[in-house]
Amino acid sequence: MEKIEHKMVDVNDINMHIAELGHGPTILLIHGFPELWYSWRHQILYLAAHGYHAVAPDLRGYGDTIGAPLDDATKFTTFQVVGDMVALIDQVAGPNEKVLVVGHDWGAVIAWYLCLYRPDRVKALVNMSVPYTPRNPRFKPIDGIRAIYGNDHYISRFQEPGKIEAEFAELGTERALKKFLAYRNPTPPVLPKKLGLGDSPNKPIILPSWLSEGDITYYTSKYEKTGFSGGLNYYRAMNLNWELSAPWTGAQVKVPTKFIVGDIDLTYNTMGIQDYIHKGGFKKDVPLLEDVIIMQDVGHFLHEEKPDEINQHIHQFFKQFCDEV
Predict the structure, then answer these.
(1) How far is CA 259 from CA 43, 82, 116, 220, 262, in A?
(2) Parallel, antiparallel, or unpaired for β 14-21 and 5-11?
(3) Domain extent at residue 158
């Protein structure tokens, strides 16, 4: 870990913290919620050792990246965040250069939009956990979630600024992070208001083998400084993303892609997703989808739970697009 280099980069009117290591083709690693660059620590070390230049930013609103207004979710749409990624690619790979991209959770969503908006900047994509979701012109995403799952679904509960942040504060940053990062259930989290976060403060949270107390300490140190609003703003901008992306209704993602998901990931078990992945819809929307990997008995944070397998999947897929690795 000591080998990983850290620096600040001015991109798209924010000051972005990145972790990087290695020389060779650039791989951009995009994290999700509630994660940080740190979530890619295993991949950074492996990929650098195998001839790549691995770059993992703290996304706007997260960690040591500064400059985005945390009280304004309209500054967290895919337009701004993809703009951040394009500006970062210019900095770490060069103007007009293409990079390899890996995404997870919200990072996967951002990676899909990066490939949709700017396929000229991406050689190939490995995306994890969240499949591409084509824009439905009839339903806004938050409205659809509320109609299907109700107001206690975690994404519904994330919508009102300040409310869930207050509950996280009452629970404590460390315990809130443990609850999210240790979550290993095929059903989406339900957070009924009358029960707060449904937590018994005296009940210990058993961490999985791949997540240490030291890892939690690092995440906690960063979230205690920034709070959760930056990450929650990505959820709060979902309906605005739907409005802004209207010109791409029906558009395909035309970048060579490999998709990986765990079979007990809540995303894989969302209504209709397995049929979409396995019965032709996914391939229709992402015509250059080359491989779909369903990892058995693996949860949402698969790149941390099974880093060796994920590292090999990334390398084996990307090396066909690189002469020098």
Answers:
(1) 16, 20, 16, 30, 11
(2) antiparallel
(3) 5-321
Q: Is the bond preceding residue 34 a cis peptide, omega within 30 degrees?
A: yes
Domains contained in the chain, number: 1
Which residues does the annotation mark as catalytic?
A: 105, 235, 300
How do the residues of the chain divide into helix, strand and coil, expressed in percent and rounded to 5?
45, 15, 40
CATH of the domain at 317: 3.40.50.1820
Q: Which tens digits make up the pLDDT trace of 13-42?
A: 999 999 999 999 999 999 999 999 999 999
Over residues 169-228, the pLDDT tens digits come to 999 999 999 999 998 889 877 776 654 555 666 788 999 999 999 999 999 999 999 999
Q: Nearest-CA neighbor of 25 among 102, 123, 117? A: 123
Helix count and strand count (H, E) for the chain: 14, 8
User: pLDDT band for position 136 (50/70/90)?
Assistant: very high
